[in-house]
Amino acid sequence: MDEGIFQAYEKEIQALEEEIRLLTEQYEDMRQESTFFSDEEILKAMKSLQGETEGETKEHESLSDLKAQLESLERDLSFLMEFTGIHFTSHSKKTVEKTPNKTVRKHRLAGRCHSLPFQLEFQLLEMQKDEKVSAVVSDLSITMDSREDSNVSKFVSRTEECGDTITFFRSLSTYAEWHEHRRHTFLHFK
């Protein structure tokens, strides 16, 4: 058998195994989240859905209004991705702990900012007190290819210690944009 065909099959098998692993994780997450709801909450949700189908609940926006709102949100998202250069390729979340006042979820984000790939893993602790909800990021882990610049690895380390995701994305956007400019400039001179 040709070595190239064998390698292509091997890559396809690995891709399928990864897809199976991700789908299994998603299934487990959904199954785990569904076990956090009590029988009373499930019955309440079912009654609410039945009421909506029978027209017993308050009026909802028409389908065309919802479509227009969705299109507006998609335009806004497209604008933000174009403006920042950040494109998310995957996101997964898993509920670790859920109580009436506190929810802990583990998030995994992957994407690209211009040409730089990144991956973040963190836990988000959401606490509700009265009407206010506060969120705290912990256990932040950032993976980036920073072989080219030691300052990037230092920045990533500081960000992981602080757990400041907003600063990370702002700085990543600026750095990646200038990284692209430098790369194009050096290609021009080669």
TrEMBL record:
Keywords: Coiled coil. GO terms for cellular component: chromosome, centromeric region; nucleus. Residues 6-83 form a coiled coil. InterPro entries: CENP-P (IPR027801). It comes from the Eukaryota. GO terms for biological process: CENP-A containing chromatin assembly. This is CENPP protein.
